[in-house]
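User: Predict the structure for this protein chain, please.
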Amino acid sequence: MDARNKVRAPQTGKGEKVADWADGRLGIYTLAKTQMRKVFPDHWSFMLGEVCLYSFLILILTGVYLTLFFEPSAAEVVYNGSYEPLNGIIMTRAYESTLDISFDVRGGLLIRQIHHWAALVFVAGMLVHMMRVFFTGAFRKPRELNWLFGWTLLFLGIITGLTGYSLPDDLLSGTGLRFAQGAILSVPIVGTYLAFFLFGGEFPGHDIISRLYPIHVLLLPGIMLGLVVAHLILVFYHKHTQYPGPGREQKSVVGMPFMPVYMAKAGGFFFLVFGVLSMMGAIATINPVWAFGPYRSDLVTTGAQPDWYLGFSEGLIRVMPGWEINAWGHTLQLGVFIPFSLFPLIMVAIGVYPFIEAWITGDKREHHILDRPRNVPTRTGLGVAWLSLYGVLLIGGGNDIVATHLHLSINAITWFVRIGFFVVPVIAFIITRRVCMALQRSDRDKVLHGRESGVIRRLPHGEFVEVHEPLTPAQLFTLTQHEQDPPYDVGPLVDANGVERKVKPSQRLRARLARAMYGQNAQIPKPTVEEYRELTSSDDHHH
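Assistant: Here is the predicted structure, written as structure tokens:
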């Protein structure tokens, strides 16, 4: 056969060759085929997690830029730079390099402020995202580990923020470090050793900045990056949760594929978040270290405040009475140690809550459909109670600012916070629980009688009534799809032979908690099929 008559094989493109090469060594084709078309549901609240992710990426990008110019050194120098009001002032090299970044490095101040704003948005996004997960029950099996990953990221984010704004060594950050050092000293027996180890001797020492720097730029971000990757892997593996609605079941997801729809949205949203943070960094001043001056151990900034996410711990310590115990030559500062211990204890309670609820309910099924917060009033009340407690302590953390700006007595504010610490969460819990129950009653009435149409009709005998329109099957399904299983019960205390059963105290406690969370007083029974048919079969049930 003539060679010219042979059919030429189609040439393989360079991109396809690269893909074949990578697939032969990494096996990415099979992975991409199964995961890139994975369906993700669409809801605005799911963007809260994306805000956290994109803020974290922006933190890494801006942080890399800042590390090129920042010098974590406590060596003292005399400033002679662009900011003339501080010329001739003795300061550390860390503070001087921060001023150089702000005034001499091209784009340095903008990057600094984007970095700081991104940190605030990152922690705020994590808090709001976790509250969304909490209120909707997205932490239930099989996502307990993902909840712990998110909780750890929130805790590490708070610590990373503390180490970050302490690096410039200005008067405000130095005051914050002094606050932290005092809290560490309050730890019984080992507090002094811990403080000396961390600060390299008496406060402020010469080692703290150089020690905080690798923790802030390497150790904590590295751990957080690993947790973020693990978090995303589990999201892919478990499939995304979704809100109740038609076609949405425990084994099916209604949404759009990851590629190309979700990726296109995610890419656009990343640049939107980056743009908003850049605008905030450009027009809204944050942490103007030049206005505070370098740190001096004999000075404190007027109205010294930490970033908002540390206001919780700050408020606890500010409003705590100055109690102390002197015994055997030692002083125990209860006024500092008790609030210093409460903050991590409250955080731990938040972290283990999914396991506590799973123990109370005894539910070992997988859950991929989210709860409507109104249908779980006790859990919703607990979440609102915690948020109200945070708000009260945030006021305590800024009691001096609130007093000066609102012309109030700082003592009155302090006592309000002390009393509110015990009273406000209880009131918030009771009100939230009653509101959820009222919303459940409203849903029940809406299912049985339909939706108010706003149309008024006059009956033959002169009575005016509002016409109710029946709900669509989709609306009926959404309002009635939730389960109402009976709460855990220890059963009869006496068996058939009249012998008293031995019931463990843990079982009694579990039964009481189950009744409180899921008993008759915590939920309104859903309409039964018989009730619905009886009402809808009537000719005038919509009037």
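Residues 539-543 have pLDDT under 50 and may be disordered.
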